[in-house]
Amino acid sequence: MRYLRYAFLAVLGIVLISISLANRESVELKLMPDAFAELVGFNLSTSLPLFVVVLGGVVAGLIIGFLWEWLREHKHRRDASAKTSEVRKLEREVKKLKKKQNQDQDEVLALLDEAS
């Protein structure tokens, strides 16, 4: 299974390198369209290679997707945490009740009862 992962990563690396080499031309990125920039009075722009724009968009999409999913699953993590603390509380209560029940019994019987 490890070799399949390494093979996949190698193929992915080769594909990304070939895409990067094929798209080295510079493109101009503008913050706003020209008409709107004239209205506002300023426009930020920069010139970057096309592969940086494409791969940057993919990375930004992955980060936004992971963040969105993490926020969406917050209620499930909160419920699991509450249930875990409730289980711990109930386990402590059961131990306390077993000790109370086994106080008047013989020590060997109490140990056997606690083990089960």
UniProtKB/TrEMBL annotation:
Keywords: Cell membrane, Coiled coil, Membrane, Transmembrane, Transmembrane helix. It comes from the Bacteria. Residues 46-94 form the Lipopolysaccharide assembly protein A domain. One of its GO terms (cellular component) is plasma membrane. InterPro entries: LapA_dom. Residues 80-114 form a coiled coil. The chain crosses the membrane at residues 48-68. It holds the Pfam family LapA_dom. This is Lipopolysaccharide assembly protein A domain-containing protein.
